[in-house]
Write a structure and sequence with these properties.
Blueprint (H helix, E strand, L loop, with lengths): L3 E7 L5 E8 L4 E5 L4 E8 L5 E3 L8 H5 L7 E2 L5 E2 L3 E4 L2 E4 L9 E2 L11 E5 L3 E8 L10 E9 L4 E10 L3 E2 L3 E2 L15 E4 L1 E5 L12 E2 L11 E2 L9 H6 L3 E6 L7 E7 L5 E7 L3 E5 L7 E2 L5 E2 L6 E5 L14 E2 L5 E11 L1
Antiparallel strand pairs: 1-2, 2-3, 3-4, 4-5, 6-16, 7-10, 8-9, 11-12, 12-13, 13-14, 14-29, 15-28, 17-20, 17-22, 18-19, 18-21, 21-24, 22-23, 23-29, 24-27, 25-26
The structure holds beta-D-glucopyranose (BGC).
Amino acid sequence: MESLKKLFGKTSKGEEVYAYTITNGKISAEILDFGATLRSIYVPDKNGNVADVTIGYEDFAPYETSSAYEGKTVGRYANRICGGKFEINGKEYNVEKNENNITCLHGGGEFSFNFWKVENFSDSSITLSFESEDGSFGFPGKMEARVTFTVTERNGVEIRYSAVADKDTIINFTNHSYFNLAGKGDILGHLLKINANAFTPTDEINIPTGEIKSVAATPMDFREFKVIGKEINSDYAQLVNAGGYDHNFCLIGEKGQIRAVAEAYDPESERRMTVYTDLPGIQLYTGNFLERCSGKAGRENYKNCGFCLETQYYPDTPNQKNFPQCTFKAGEEYNSVTIFEFSAD
Ligand code: BGC
């Protein structure tokens, strides 16, 4: 596994997209400069057989348009903002309503569907930066953002975000990788554990109702390892409405303190992934809206072929005053870290 930069493809306008491989000699990750996209993570199983444990595409073209955000860095506000509006310091801001003209989803896509500048690239690490203008997609403040992907000695892909704006603004970054630890098939047989006693129920258009609801005695209970498919098709209204899991879990532990928050395990390959973060929430999304199409290396993408664990502030925070807030002052730095760490039993 060598560290390298290679031409991956071209945008519809003819701009060159590069793929950068970083590695610790045991696992490796591939990052695109377009959307600071984590395209692949190659991980050995217990017998040393290496598989790509993320979902995506063979060629560049779908990365330019896919509304499924495979592997993307998402900013400046991941997840949904109700009605595409919120107030800061008594002023109302109207942001891009890119979801059915009703909701702002993933900041309108600005950070995910543009080129990032590569600042640093070494064998095991890459840093990319992105500048967003004041008022871009309706958000207040000119923002400078950085993301660093590092393959750690402990076989983690560590993602560090930092951002600062020149006006008070909301900041919520995530990575939108879809994982499949088997490197094939669907993820319904994977085991999952999430260190959360509660989740944020949503309405019919996936906006939090404001309630922080105990997971006890519901299919949302992942406090002990559970097969993802076990209750996914139950008649629990939250799952029926979202077509599966597409919910924010309220993580145990202090915001700002890095801790293990979730663990996934594929019994067949015996690959295991532990997620660490310092953020308060995580979105479990089971790829409910994925349409069947060709994916990477002859694989097919389809509903439930991967799951996302999107570390985040809870959705719609600026409109939900009882949620941990992510409004940052002008000049105040946002910093956060998420690590996807891999092992095989
Ligand atoms: C959302 C899903 C959405 C997906 C792709 C996830 O973060 O929760 O509802 O379909 O992103 O945009």
